[in-house]
Amino acid sequence: MNGKFPQHFLWGGAVAANQVEGAYQADGKGLSTSDLQPQGIFGAITPRMAGDSGIKDVAIDFYHRYPEDIALFAEMGFKCLRTSIAWTRIFPQGDEEMPNEAGLAFYDRLFDEMAKYGIQPLITLSHYEMPYGLVKHYGGWGDRRTIDFFERYARTVFERYKHKVKHWLTFNEINMSLHAPFTGVGLPQESDKSAVYQAIHHQLVASARAVKACHEIVPEGKIGNMLLGGILYPLSCKPEDLLETQRQNRDWLFFGDVQARGYYPAYMQRFFRENGIQVAITEEDRQTLCETIDFISFSYYMSGCVTADPAQFETARGNILDMVPNPHLASSEWGWQIDPIGLRYLLNVLYDRYQKPLFIVENGLGAKDRVEADGNINDDYRINYLNDHLVQVAEAIDDGVEVMGYTSWGPIDLVSASKAEMSKRYGFIHVDRDDAGNGSLERRRKKSFYWYRDVIHSNGASLKDRR
């Protein structure tokens, strides 16, 4: 792999505020939609009552332990750390005129700690959470006023951190709102398609406003979108399967098309018309959407298949999506199919489509790790998974794809998004905490910690082509 990764490739890892920080009401923080999902994205929405608790309330206590964790990331040689700002730390209810200074100060300390080690922040403005106050009082992203509240928040953090943060993302996995509307846009799960797409439209307009604000306030910075890279293959070469695959891939590529091209594609107009979907789009909205992102970022965990006759096949749940399993692929303990070549394919698809730099901001293997009697954690399965995917990233770069960097998901064990589990571990660093919230929170290096350190230090030269 020597020489295939660019000299200034941004190696690192990715976490999210609501999955690592804890301190869910510290220093004036308000309730977020994530705080009302104690069992994760697929769990019930539960009002908070005095005295109750959930595993995310403490998570891995990154809010207080970040200096230790940043030092461990630096030991691996991280060039970049992707995390998110908890919107409710800055505007606790979402609609305040003035921000919460204690929340702003926390991220100042975090970014300063990263700067000590030369680690660049890659910051997501909204990662699977928004102020619950905006849901309760305005109906979340269903209300156009939320666009203004988000822009105020974005401009506030751009101004505050413009000398510390040069890489930004707007909404995490923005296309997942189609599958989990409360998490994505603050709407009830049973909302009809018109309501969901109207809320998504408001979010796309807000994203474009954030792009404009970033370009004004941080002129030397770059701002991207973030897609759930759910690439799909036809299950057969039947023309009907090919057409259905194209249609389903467009379900998520639509978000990239709007954010990278600046307008709604024609195929969505037909989709809205044929499904009776009404979306109010003003001329001002159309002008705003012309503010396009600088780069495309995405998550990639698995691929899936599509058939025009899905009733004949069982589906496998992956990262939010249900997909028809590929008979040629193995699966993880959680049923997520493992497809390293799919990452190379996806990189080429996105680069061919947009001709913008790409950033792989999530990729990893959730697994049940075992601490041996001697304290070691021999996670060779994780090493093999990441090695094989990174080999395919190198191949895509050789294909001519411009790849900015790679931040593996969960470089330190965290609370999983889907079901709020600690037992589903992704990290190079083990955290002593179980699904019931028991444990010392002690950090421990896994075997993969040293493997990833070598990958970064060699700029990918230590990767092994195991095909």
Model description:
GO terms for molecular function: 6-phospho-beta-glucosidase activity. It comes from Serratia montpellierensis. Pfam families: Glyco_hydro_1 (PF00232). Belongs to the glycosyl hydrolase 1 family. With 467 residues, the chain is α/β, with parallel strands linked by helices. It has one domain (10-457): TIM Barrel, CATH 3.20.20.80. It has helices spanning 17-20, 62-76, 87-90, 101-116, 132-138, 145-161, 181-185, 193-217, 239-261, 266-274, 283-289, 340-354, 380-399, 447-457, and strands spanning 10-14, 80-84, 120-126, 167-171, 222-228, 232-234, 295-299, 304-306, 316-317, 322-323, 358-362, 403-409, 429-431, 443-445. Strands 1-2-3-4-5-7-11-12 form an eight-stranded parallel barrel, surrounded by five helices. A two-stranded parallel sheet has the order 6-8. A two-stranded antiparallel ribbon has the order 9-10. Helix 6 (145-161) packs parallel to helix 8 and helix 8 packs across helix 11. The longest helix is centred in the middle third of the chain and has 25 residues, at 193-217. The chain starts with 9 loop residues before the first strand and ends in a 10-residue tail after the last helix. The model has no long low-confidence stretch (mean pLDDT 95).
